[in-house]
Amino acid sequence: MACVYILFSRSTSRYYVGSSRKGSADGRLKSHNAGKSKSTKAGRPWSLIYEEQCSDYTDARRKENYLKSGVGRRWIKEKFQSAEGWPSGLRRRSCPPEAGPPWAEKPHTVVVV
To answer: What is the pTM of this model?
Structure first.
């Protein structure tokens, strides 16, 4: 099992899309919050807002690349901007510096077979 996940940083009002070879993003979240990833070090602390289980790592990488594409970014915007408190004007990996969405502390999990 592998997974694709989306993290949100309240301190920078940015989101990050990543994938993991393990079946859960918990280990990756700890790694990001420990500052072990150069691309997310400045945004600590991160909250897991979305996690999707995939059959294998190849599938997880394919979905990660999709979420980083223009269509995927629009999907993220449509899915999460409808949630109460999501900042308007979401752009790739960033949005206006506001308090952040209230759901950023509660991960949304989707299981794909």
So the answer is: 0.74
